[in-house]
Amino acid sequence: MSQTEVQLIKADAVQTTDIANSAVTDAKISALTSSKLTGALPAISGASLTNLPASGKAHNLVINGAMQVAQRGTSSTSDGIHTVDRFQSKYYGTDEATTQAQVDVAAGTTPYTLGFRKALKITNGNQTSGAGTGDYVYIRYKIEAQDLANSGWNYTSASSYITLSFWVKSSVAQTFQCRLESQDGTKQNFPFEIGSLSADTWTKITKTIPGNSNIQIDNDTGTGIELMWDVFRGTDFTDNSVTNDAWATYASGTRTKDQTSTWYTTNDATFEITGVQLEVGSTATDFEHRSFAVEKRLCMRYYQQYSNIMMVGYAPDNSNKSYSHAFTFPVEFRSAPTLTISNTGSTAGQYVQDGQNTKTVTSLLSVACSIRFAEIYFNLSGDLTNYSIAIAVSTTSTTHQTTYYITAEL
């Protein structure tokens, strides 16, 4: 049929009843462009659409999944959260400590091309004693219970799902074990396996997890579920009788199947993750990229760190002290936090002045915290005028500096 003949076909001349069900195939419409679609489109069931977050439900339940925020620093050999916010790096039984670091994702790689610029990297030490039965190296993320309870996941139903997705890279080609562990009531454990990774290659992992009638998640500010990436665990914690991809009552000795020790016994082996997302539904959707500003404020519910906070207090009639310096937190904490300080200046701590005298902070005398503010008492290097106003001075000085560490981590 020529183009002229096609143009002579009258509008509405071809009805849907004139077209056989099999006449229009996927191949014939695969290159359909938006210019061919005009007017009102027919209604499409939401069940037929894919790669969309569940309507009305929280999208990514993980904070800082793109590893953007690192309030404490960018590299550490300490156990716990010391670099990327909200993600703990845990180790035990090592001959040489592992190193946790916030690192750049290399340009041109996937996930870089998907908008990921940072990753959490674990670098192994030299474990000269080999893989001990009680040794471990793992990454842990704790989800606040009320975030899960209000997410829309019917966690006690086996037909209701959450989906975990993330990017992972290992310098050693091997299989790794991961798991979820509920914390309220009787703990439940959901182990699963990352398929064999190719060395030094980013791989996206997706795991859909059903609910279970034994799961309990309280609507409170405690921990609801922990996500764990086991880089290595010794046989004190593992057993090959464990069933993957199924919930079971947690027991210390049956967390996962026995784990490969190649990574752990390789000096300077590395393990990296980024793009961590946990969402309601049985399908992994595109990662929810949030701005740095939004992500940092979410992190600040659990941890805040400052240097040389300007605060007004007063000098009592006790020598070498200042009292009642009040600081209102810019973001409300999950629970009443713990506040500690260290004098990080090259010469001394933060200046405290009363208008006539200038002294420095030597240590923390005491502190009282609520979720909204702190009242701080200092020991000073000398005496201020009795009953005078005492101002802890905000300055960019690196010679006289006090750093404040305020935590309400799960």
Written description of the protein model:
It is built from four helices and 21 strands. With 410 residues, it is mainly beta. The strands form four sheets. A six-stranded antiparallel beta sheet has the order 1-3-4-12-6-9, with no helix packed on it. It has a six-stranded antiparallel beta sheet with strand order 2-5-10-7-8-11. It has helices at residues 3-7, 26-29, 145-149, 292-299; strands at residues 75-76, 87-92, 99-104, 118-123, 136-144, 161-170, 176-182, 188-194, 203-210, 223-233, 248-249, 270-280, 303-307, 311-314, 321-328, 338-343, 351-353, 358-369, 373-380, 389-392, 402-407.
SSE inventory with pairings:
Elements: H1 3-7, H2 26-29, E1 75-76, E2 87-92, E3 99-104, E4 118-123, E5 136-144, H3 145-149, E6 161-170, E7 176-182, E8 188-194, E9 203-210, E10 223-233, E11 248-249, E12 270-280, H4 292-299, E13 303-307, E14 311-314, E15 321-328, E16 338-343, E17 351-353, E18 358-369, E19 373-380, E20 389-392, E21 402-407
Antiparallel strand pairs: 1-3, 2-5, 3-4, 4-12, 5-10, 6-9, 6-12, 7-8, 7-10, 8-11, 13-21, 14-20, 15-19, 16-21, 17-18, 17-20, 18-19
